[in-house]
Fold this sequence. Notes:
The protein is mainly α. It contains seven helices and no strands.
Amino acid sequence: MPMPSLGFNRQVVRDNPDFWGPLAVVLFFSMISLYGQFKVVSWIITIWIFGSLTIFLLARVLGGEVAYGQVLGVIGYSLLPLIVIAPVLLVVGSFEVVSTLIKLFGVFWAAYSAASLLVGEEFKTKKPLLIYPIFLLYIYFLSLYTGV
Length: 148
């Protein structure tokens, strides 16, 4: 949840990174993306690993103190909004405008959630420089889901 006002302790994901939880989320996203395209599972896992590496390198260049495991965990767990919107897209898929708005909402939610967890106090002013590549990464994840 990107909103700290809701009372969730969001820093747990960044402070105690794990591998198996985000991997389970990524595999679940891969399983719901399987509809007629089995090759997408390896693509999603590869994009998760190398996309997280790219975000990690960008965060380090911008002056952030994050570890690669933290970035893997945050990017993996932040796929949950795309998993939430997947069943909604099945229902409203025939309405193109509504479907596009739901896709944009899910990608913005995921990107903002990931960026807000990765950006510490040390480089708060450079947050837009990190949100943009994260946003592009989640657009790529969504395009793998939709088959575009």
